[in-house]
Amino acid sequence: MSRVGGGSWRNWAGNQRATPRRVLVPRSTEDVAAAVRTAAEDGLTVRMVGTGHSFTGAALTDGVQLRPGGLTRVRSIDTVGGLVTVEAGLPLRDFNRVLAEHRMALANMGDIQEQTVAGAAQTGTHGTGRDAAGLVSQIAELELVLADGSVVTCSRDRRPDLFDAARAGLGALGVVTAITWRTVPAFLLRAREEPMRWDEVLERLDELAADNEHFEFYWFPHTEGCLTKRNNRVAGPAAREVGPLPTWRRWLDDELLSNVVFGGVNRLGRRVPAVVPAVNEISTKALSARTYTDLSYKVFTSPRRVRFKEQEYAIPREQLGSALRSLRELLAGKDWRIGFPIEVRLLPPEDAWLSMAYDRPTAFIAVHIYHALPHAQYFQAVEELMTAVGGRPHWGKLHTRDAAYLRSVYPRFDDFVRLRNELDPDRRFANRYLTQVFGA
């Protein structure tokens, strides 16, 4: 285990910072256990960071910060059973490449692959899917270091309560050091991206959700324009009738337009907010349909280089249409100028206790704002709409909910707190954010 210099740490968006007393790079589970025991002797808290893609203070500590760069090994690959065990700090982009080399894949993913596998799972990263759920539903086994320095492995058969609690546990129950994933054979997705008017999207929501394995859409505020995305599996020679995007087209759409130009537009909108509605209107008119086929992870994910802040709420699926209409009415009555599209995704029920989709079909509504702009009024107003219908905030995205509210929307919340009290009575893994969401 190596020790690195101190100094401040900040997340990707730049809105969360910490100055830990001690920064360590463990290279084994035993290193993590030793770091936890030493921290206890010194009366310090411990947090493992990922790549900083959470917008909340979930990873912050002024005690011992563990950095994941030394925990990136692939421990085992079972191509017959589909089980793959990797260490906590392996980035998803590297994990996807390893899986592809062995003709394996995750059944569903979020839209970026920069996070570590543990960071993504612990905050409930999900993606969109009709049948395939989020990352926590694809975990077969977890290895954790508990607050007393002991190492435990949990699964559906071994310590099932801990398994169901810790899969989306925010590191509150222990430091995740390795994850065994339940994978599927590698598959191709045909992506169909198509502009659509707001009224048509809302009228066809049920149809689009039922007819596609992975459906999502983006609405451009202050306009009637949406971009719909439909991803479905294809197999055999027919899959190549519409092959991968040419390199030039991928660069044009995903790098130049979605990052370079979009970044410039947001910088302009920051200086001259009045231009935002017109720019959004131009953007919707410039949208063009495209269809392509590629390996699943290349379709699920896209580069995101324009920095932003984000809030996302998970609401009951049946509330989606009315919630979107209320959101549109909210924006129509304000003088805000929102340059980022609003993202809508869907997921089937999950059984991890703190999954945002626990025990109910779920719709996700995500709002974003350029990282250099104030977000509080916009996010607070949206939050009021979402909590009015029993919304659950994404654990890694900005919100103001506390334990009293979260207890009312998570049926197993008190079970989680009870387990936390049992495993970490001294709050070795605590920080301000965990106190907010779980109580003191």
Q: What can you tell me about this protein's structure?
A:
- With 440 residues, the chain is an alpha+beta fold.
- The chain is built from 14 helices and 21 strands.
- It has an 8-stranded antiparallel sheet. A 5-stranded antiparallel sheet has the order 7-8-12-10-11. It has a 4-stranded mixed sheet with strand order 1-4-6-5, with helices on one face.
- Strand 2 (9-10) and strand 3 form a beta hairpin.
- Helix 10 runs antiparallel to helix 11 (376-387).
- The longest helix has 25 residues, at 247-271.
- The two termini are 32 Å apart.
Summarize this entry quickly:
With 440 residues, this protein is of the alpha+beta class.
Q: How can the largest sheet be summarized? A: 8 strands, antiparallel
Which assembly state applies to the chains in this document?
single chain
Shape: globular
Cα radius of gyration in angstroms = 21 Å
Tally of DSSP helical segments: 14
Based on helices, strands and strand pairing, what is the structural class?
alpha+beta
Percent of residues in beta strands: 15-25%
**Cα separation of the termini:** 32 Å
Helix fraction, binned, reads 25-40%
